[in-house]
Amino acid sequence: MEFWLAWARGPAFLFAFSFMLLGLTRLVALTAWETARAMRRAGNKTLPYRQVLTATLKWLLPFGKLKDRLLLSLTSLTFHIAILIVPVFLAGHIALWARGLGISWPAIPNPLADVLTIVAIIMAVALVIQRAAARPTRALSRFQDYAIPLVVAVPFVSGFLAMHPLASPFSYEATLFVHVMSANLVFVLIPITKLSHMVLIPGVQLVSEVAWHWPPDAGSKVAVALGKENEPI
Amino acid sequence: MGKKGKYSFYVEDKALEVTERPRRFLEAFAAVLEHSNYGLPLEVYTRLSTKCSRCAASCQLYQTTGEDRDIPCHRSELLLKIFRRYFTKSGLLKARVFGGFTLTDEYLDELGEAVYRCTACRRCKSTCPMGIDHGLVTHLARWLLSEIDVVPKALLVATRVQLEGVGNTSAIPVPALKDTCEFLEEEFQDIYNRDDIKFPMDVEGAEYVFFPAVSDYLLEPDTLMGNAAVMHVTGGSWTIGTGNYDGINYGLFYSDRMMERIVKNVVAEVRRLGGKKILVGECGHATRSAWFASTFCGPDAPEVVNCLQYAWDQLRAGNIPLKEERIEERVTYHDPCNIARAGRITEEPREILNAICTDFVEMTPNRTENYCCGGGGGTVSIDEIRAFRTGLMGKRKAEQIRATGAKYLVSPCANCKKQLKEVCEDNGLDEVEVVGLHDLLLKVIDFDIGRSATDSKDAQAHAAKTEEGEGT
């Protein structure tokens, strides 16, 4: 077990975390490149920057958007806050960064981390229940839409058990192994699933605006490509 | 008469020939992705779409039908699925390994029906946490479908007449246009005792070249007289070009290819006359299409001014003399999606209405959050789906209008006006009168003070005073 735990915390983590970082960097770079290319090709190069910025900020800090669907919005917002804070500011995690790379930052108290962890787990389950319970979401949902919140919840459940070994029915090593490996799985999933919204969201309002900025002759070129330039309407 | 085939709207016969439609659709898709900028949003949207269904709550159609297919995100997914499968590496790989989704004729039929159950009003965009513009996806899907001839016959035929026939969507020949304008000039004589208010034709070097929805010449004489009256009292330099006098652009509704040609024709007419600016009449989509002039014709394309912007600038400057009496009946205002959704023209019409009416009430929600009239995206021109437009699509709007208790429902848009008249007829709102904003303005312009724009300090003082009085 010790060998496997060391493997999970060593090479497997290194692979998963690098995969995530490189994958996200690639996504951001590609999107930025494509956006710049679209604007280079566009006939009208003016953009309503202020409007785009406002829309972006409104969704990055969506407190003003809660009222539309209050329960779902609150669930989602709380979920996001909890899953962002705990992994980054847990004292135990920071200690690992300090040991490995010699960097550190302030931690949150462990009791707060416990509370946020439980909140994250409850909200993940609540998200799935709400998705299944409401007709429009049920109609839209794919397998991954149900699976992803639950997969994200696994490191929190196992992390909580690892922090409270006396309350855990499983061995500490096994719990920790599941914790590290499930987190590794999430890292790998981030750049290749909708979880990539964590880096794409700041740019999407801009993308949606740029999308209406067409190359001046796109229509005629499409006509030529399809051999329709002389075809009557 | 056309055939409906599998759709609720009439299509031309060739749309029903199903030879290799999926292949042709994908060829068109590939060509569009290569030459346009649509690849960027599709790439991002396919990654981001979280299926949260917040958009469902914002859609007036879904609010009424509750049908899964009317969820904006569901509609967008129809196209995103094709994109993901055929134009992303992971999709191609997945298809090779697992098989799965293949584009079929039935699927294209479903898409064709779906994108014309949407008015592309873009209300759902502001409720999408991922910033997905479902209106854009519908817009693109309609273009791609039109390349395999799936397009409502009403839109196609009007565009054909405009680009290959008489030159405008209502098929009004120049002599008939001149007759109409002369008739309206006589109306000024008969009603207002003014023989100097003109509809100037082909004046070279005019500042503004006027492009209303051409249907106004048939259906909305009061709006046009209002436009002419405003131009007259303000001494505006304007003209109607007999080479092209139609602001309507159905390309916006079904094909960027057609849209490009129509916008270029508008710009060409302005340049032929040596005009400076495009003055768009009371029409939402004509305004939004004209805003694309710099897209298609470069940065030196003529500036686009909507007649509401012009009228408010002039009223604010005290150049439009108003009578003492105001419009006392209750007035409400419908924001046309194409000018209001992005927040571009929302305040000018309200300022004008506040200046000329004593009882102006807002609909809720309004401005960028307004509900579509139910006939947007060209659907208002498709007569055979009227029951759908005024029933399912228009129900929410009818409730909004009823709640205001207004006598006059003002909407500065030819499309919205036609649709709203039908919504009122079909939903028992018989007491409501749907009018353009210039129709009301015409009622209160004081021609006796405004002999001409240059002489009347009185007029300016009067307008300034009344504006103050209204506390706008």
Write a structural description.
The complex is a heterodimer of chains A (233) and B (472). Chain A is mostly helical and 233 residues long. Chain A has ten helices and no strands. Chain A has a single domain, classed as Up-down Bundle (Fumarate Reductase Cytochrome B subunit). In chain A, α2 packs antiparallel against α9 and α3 packs antiparallel against α5. The longest helix of chain A is centred in the first third of the chain and has 40 residues. The relative contact order of chain A is 0.15. The model of chain A has no long low-confidence stretch (mean pLDDT 96). Chain B has three domains: 139 residues, Orthogonal Bundle (Fumarate Reductase Iron-sulfur Protein, Chain B, domain 2); 142 residues, Rossmann fold; 121 residues, Rossmann fold, CATH 3.40.50. In chain B, α22 links the parallel β7 and β8. The longest helix of chain B is centred in the middle third of the chain and has 19 residues. Chains A and B meet through α1, α2, α6, α9 and α10 of A and α1, α2, α3, α5 and α9 of B.
